[in-house]
Fold each of these.
Amino acid sequence: MMRLLLLREARRAWRAGAWLPIAFFLLVAALIPFGVGPDPRVLERIGVGVMWVAAVLAALLPIERLVEPDLADGTIDQLVLRGVSEEWIAASKILGHWLGFGPMLLFATFPATILLGSEGAGLERLLVGLAIGTPALAALSVAVAALTAGLSRAGALAGLLLLPVAIPLLIFGAGEGPSALKFEAATALALLVGSLFVTAAALRAARR
């Protein structure tokens, strides 16, 4: 059942336009040189941080379709009646959301770093940081989507809820050195586990 749920979530992500977060990510990378100037030293200094901010916002783009449609049409009720726990539903949505934007986002870092002049060590640092952090971003997005499902202007509210929580991940992800990656990994793991249980609790509350 978990495999079927995962395949369903991944198909939904791609059908709904998985390219949109990637296009947004690359668009940010292309526009930054126009805003701060073409100085390669400036671009290299801010490149990793800018790409992390773009990654956080890209994860937010599909947030209104992650949970609300399944609650509205009764899909989650049917899954629970068939014995699927809310935790399994939450896990499938988190993994499905990550598959919809995470791998492509990592691939998009190659042209993005070229645009920002952060090749070499900057590219490696960004790739490793995003590989560690994007699953946590996916988990946060699903948790916030579950908390805001059914509310008016859920997209704007989701951003207000997610961005403050994602700040530690962004700080450590954009940091330098092995210690920053260790703190990022610990933060990402805590956010991933916490978001899983928050999502499950929000789904239970929404069904009552």
Amino acid sequence: MKYLVIAAAVALLSGCAARGLYNWGGYDDALYASYKDPTKAEALRTKLETHIAAMESAGQKVAPGLYAELGTLYFQAGAKSRAAEFYAKEQKAWPESSQLMTALINNIQRTAATEAEKK
């Protein structure tokens, strides 16, 4: 009986370890490709959008940092308001990121206000 319990525990734990906690949707490979070739940043953005939309429609939790990564890609492309939307989603999904996301959102808002004053 003792061996049966140990075997069941090992099988259960190894099954959990193989699956992973979150579905990253090939994020690591796409990120690496975009670092190697910055022209692939658009492909990374598209891949993240597709993956996040699929996760949200399936009612699954998006992996930590993916909203923020997509927001940063929008920020780099000049779509600052869109970036702020994804930073806010990251903040809501992962409260531990609140300070960083708040700082990034505030920076975007401050920059937008400064640009509006110059016009």
Amino acid sequence: MVDKLILSDEEWRKRLSPEEYDVLRRHGTERPGSGCFLGTKTPGTYVCAGCGNPLFKSGTKFESGTGWPSFTQPLTADSVTEVQDRSYGMIRTEVRCARCDGHLGHVFPDGPPPTGLRYCMNSVAMKHVPEGQPLQPAKS
């Protein structure tokens, strides 16, 4: 179980850049092809930009051709939560950080083996911690 990080809107605005705030707290989406992690292949762990919660290992990242970094599975079952999203006249599954409830992206059932899933994430919602460096979730 992940310890929850709950902050006021004002605290989130101080902690995050305007782009991070828009995606993580207002459920925004970066433009396709614009994210800094789209072509990244550096070994390591992707963590939540809002709270540092470990989300995905680089070994599960793949090129989906969608314009956003994609992963076959989260780091652990407790890394993310999934919520039905009915915005924009569609029914999708939103992926949120399990620690701070920040919006990360969506998951779709059209990924490669072994899971058949495509966790389509916003680069701005994550940070990359290179392999061998300690993972340190942000303090409240």
